[in-house]
Write a structure and sequence with these properties.
about 140 residues, mainly alpha, about 0% strand, elongated
Length: about 140
């Protein structure tokens, strides 16, 4: 504390009572800016450390997945070599997507429909109906 008083009295003698408040404001601004820069630097270092930890965790997870996949593949090959059926409950089975067909008697875009489908559709239209009772009468 005695050193601070000595520095204050020395500054008062050197700069005078009129300049001392301006100098104190400038020193305060400098200290605030210095503190802000230190906080930004610390935050940046902490975020980089978090990013590195996250990357390490991602690598570890990827290695675990690869090891598990290798183990499943090794078990499958061992079972196949022994002539056993292999069912891996750990590995999700891919679902087979059903084929969705348009309703009957729909208008088909000929540019994007396979030629074989168009030929089958034309044959159905040109063939006479199997039951003559279902024929429509003309309104003429």
């Amino acid at each position: 504390m005695s050193e601070m008083i000595f520095i204050f009295l020395l500054a008062l003698l050197i700069f005078g009572p009129r300049k001392l408040p301006e100098i104190a404001r400038e020193v305060g601004k400098f200290m605030a800016e210095f503190k802000r820069a230190g906080n930004e630097f610390r935050n940046q270092i902490e975020s980089e450390i978090q990013n590195l930890d996250l990357e390490d965790q991602i690598k570890k997870d990827a290695e675990k997945r690869e090891a598990a996949m290798r183990e499943v593949e090794d078990r499958r090959q061992l079972a196949q070599s022994q002539g056993e059926l292999f069912d891996a409950p750990d590995v999700p089975q891919q679902e087979v997507m059903p084929t969705i067909l348009p309703p009957e008697h729909t208008v088909v875009n000929e540019d994007h429909t396979p030629r074989s489908s168009l030929i089958e559709a034309q044959e159905e239209v040109q063939a006479p109906p199997a039951n003559p009772e279902h024929q429509t009468e003309s309104n003429g």
